[in-house]
Amino acid sequence: EGEKEKREAEEKLRRENEIKGRDDKRKKIIHEMLQVEKNYVVVLGLITRKYLQPLQASIKSHRPLLTPASIKTIFSIIEIIANYHQLLLSNLESRIKKWLADGMVNPILLADIFISMSENMKCYSAYINIYEKSLVTIHQHKKSNPAFLQFLKQ
Predict the structure, then answer these.
(1) Residue 55: count of CB within 10 angstroms of its CB
(2) pLDDT tens-digit series, residues 107-151
(3) Considering the entire predicted model, what is its pTM?
(4) 52 contact partners, CB below 8 Å, separation of at least 6
(5) Distance between CA atoms of 152 and 30, rounded to whole angstroms?
(6) What distance in Å separates the CA atoms of residue 83 and residue 30, rounded to the nearest whole number?
(7) Burial profile 12-34: b = 16 or more Cβ within 10 angstroms, e = fewer
(8) What count of Cα atoms within 13 Å lies in the side-chain half-sphere of residue 24?
């Protein structure tokens, strides 16, 4: 009788440790997802502020660095993508903050965030379809436009 109780207690402890291990792994994955999203939002912001906005502002100057068409080709819909990811990050942070307040982490409860934003993911098709042309446009302007090349080196 005592041996059976001991085995049951050991089995219960093993299951609890297994569950805790899975929970710890999930927390780590969720933290990594959040960190990757934060980094991506920062990079998109840098691209927008350091490159897109100055190039757009140069259009109004006496010596624009690129034509509006070239800027559109190079940057495509990056502002839409940046806004999407800022919203995604905000939703993820809000959910995780709620989990921390409740003392519980349930990664399954992230799915609705991605599902509700899935329509926005379609914008990546347009971005991917023009990506190669974007690279070619950058390369052509670097070769033929010294002012643009200098701008990139800053």
Answers:
(1) 19
(2) 667 888 888 888 888 888 888 999 999 999 999 999 999 999 999
(3) 0.80
(4) 71, 75, 78, 79
(5) 35
(6) 21
(7) eeeeeeeeeeeeeeeeeebeeeb
(8) 6
Instruction: List, in order, residues 6 or more apart from 106 with CB less than 8 Å away.
Output: 99
Place of tokens 């068409």: 69
Decide if 26 contacts 106 (C-beta within 8 A): no
| Residue 33, C-beta contacts closer than 8 angstroms, at least 6 positions apart | 92, 110
- Structural tokens at position 75: 């940057």
Decide: 31 and 95 in contact? Cβ < 8 Å: no
Helix (H/G/I), strand (E/B), else coil: 137: helix
Give the ranges where 1-122 is alpha helix by DSSP (H): 2-47, 53-58, 68-75, 78-102, 111-116
User: What is the Cα–Cα distance from 139 to 147, expressed in whole angstroms?
Assistant: 13
Q: Which of 26, 66, 60 is closest to 150 using CA atoms?
A: 66
